[in-house]
UniProtKB/TrEMBL annotation:
Protein name: 4,5-dioxygenase
Domain of life: Bacteria
Gene3D superfamilies per the UniProt record, alphabetical: DOPA-like domains
Xref: InterPro entries: DOPA-like_sf, DOPA_dioxygen
Coiled coil: none
A Pfam family hit: DOPA_dioxygen
Length: 143
């Protein structure tokens, strides 16, 4: 039986009811990631900052692809935003670029593994805040 590192077997059995905790399932395979998205949220006040960031990303990461400015809520997103799509290769520099330059903006970064629900709700990296997503708008697909 697989055990939690550093937790005595008796304490582990008590904590889990004797079951192997789901955290011990096989890890997700990063090879399933076909792209990354960054969703940059804005409101009236932060719109100019969002425009500034969009221009800087375009300058410094020319391979990034930009979605439309969504001025109203769309899909699972709780408010206005635009999307930036990029490859796993570009993620290594683009995610840090967003971290250093978001200037107070809230950004959802998530991988695209073809499972929108898991990608937005479980695999998400949030910068600045965690906003509530509309889970009903996210389709579940099997691995
Ligand atoms: Zn997305």
């Amino acid at each position: 039986m697989i055990m939690c590192a550093g937790i005595p077997p008796a304490a582990h059995a008590q904590a889990t009811g004797g079951n192997i905790h789901p955290m011990f399932d096989d890890p997700e395979n990063v090879g399933t990631i076909t792209a990354w998205h960054a969703h940059v949220y804005f409101d009236q006040e932060s719109r100019a900052t969002a425009a500034w960031l969009r221009e800087r990303v375009a300058e410094h990461h020319p391979a990034a692809r930009f979605g439309h400015w969504h001025e109203v809520k769309v899909g699972p997103h709780p408010g206005p935003m635009y999307q930036i799509a990029f490859t796993s290769g570009d993620a290594a520099l683009l995610i840090p670029f967003l971290a250093l330059n978001r200037r107070g903006l809230t950004i959802l970064v998530h991988p695209d593994t073809g499972r929108p629900r898991a990608d937005h709700l479980e695999h998400a990296l949030w910068m600045g805040a965690v906003l509530p997503l509309d889970a009903a708008a996210l389709v579940e697909r099997p691995k």
